[in-house]
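Objective 1b: paired records.
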Amino acid sequence: MIRLRKIACVLTAFALFALSLSACRHTPDEQQVREAIASIAQAAEVGAASDVGAPLSEDFDGNAGELDRRGLTNMVRLLALRDEHIGVTMGPVSIEHRGERMVATFSVTLTSGGKLLPDQMGLFQVESAWRKDDGKWRCYTASWKHSM
């Protein structure tokens, strides 16, 4: 009887340990960055300014001072208020580790049905740099170039 209890306790402890290990699995860092990039694209399409800004660091710098986090979210907010739609088509994302940081490069095509930003639409090559802030990957800088 005591032997059966010991075996039951050991099996229960083993089962709890196995469950706790499966709960500890986390999404790989590269996948987290890819998901953050995709979430920014989706948020831009629906005009969700706060969701566009969520994966960006507070000190985000876009195109060497051309656009900060607040400026980017305000631009998305303005487009949403004007009821303008931005279409975002992403190319493949390439990620390179650089120490404790990552650099993601990709192409993106922006389209618009409105009149506010027609000259700023088209194909862009983007390079974004990411770091971990408070356990989450945040984009702290990005640069983009208009491609054909």
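Objective 1b, second protein:
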Amino acid sequence: MTRRVLIVTHGGRPRAVAAMSEAVSELESAGFEVTLHDDDLAETFGDRISSVRLREGVAESEVVMVLGGDGTILRAAELTHGTEVPLLGVNLGHVGFLAESERENLHDAVRRLAAHDYVVEERRVVDVVVHRPGEDEPVTGWALNEATIEKGDRERMLEVGIAVDGRPLSSFGCDGVLVSTATGSTAHAFSAGGPVMWPDVDAVLLVPLSAHALFSRPLVISPRSEYVVEVLERSPIPGVLTCDGRRSIDLPPGSRVHVRSGAVPLRFARLMPAPFTDRLVSKFNLPVVGWRQAADGAARRSVPTEPGPSEDSAPGPTPVQKEV
């Protein structure tokens, strides 16, 4: 049986082209049939036909290998969303939170793939439903990282109302509101002051962006609940909804955006058994040794070693080292 891998990369970057050439060579040597995807194609918000067009050749693939950073992985997610095919990210970017392997480990990644030495992990997405005034049918979308409602005019504030499970919670002027998955908590939501959520936390996060309000803290709800963000009629400007920085739709005053945990997850091929804590430390280069631990270690190293007793000397009391 032929094993196929679909490669997605950023064709306009020399580093990506070089990595793609190496990946094709390695995969073909391992017995895979390789196809390349035109990354210039893009899904548009609410356009189901574009989604079908994008996925040509995906279902026949064992894995979609992505050569690039998180942005390229988010583009590739448009191919695999709604399918059983997992993504395998090889990081060519800066942080690469979604990637599973680094560029220098490409050979090992192919070897592990050929040996079926990987596991498939599911990540929740959010489903988005938009109701706009004057339109009978809602527009639907989804996001792996976040759905962001932002102001359409940089010179004014957007007036929004927030509800949870149909119950009004708060309203305020702001630059926007961001609704994130656990996966997206280390992306835009993190930059906006939201908490880091471990990927297996089944919850949905909301983070106000520069809200002019006393109560503008991040909120976390269960996967059974739903946020509604309304662009209020009194808002002096419209809003714009953007999913994963990729797919956008205008939000005139009176629009309502419903966001809840999605029923269909995205799948990722995982090679490394390391816990998310280690990934967090590595990607953010976190100092895992506290200043007190470092100071205590230095103090212990500075204590002179006592010479052992000689045969001619009388045995003395055993020295006791006090803890610093």
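Confidence is low (pLDDT under 50) at residues 309-324. Helices lie at 14-29, 48-54, 70-80, 106-114, 188-191, 276-284, 291-302.
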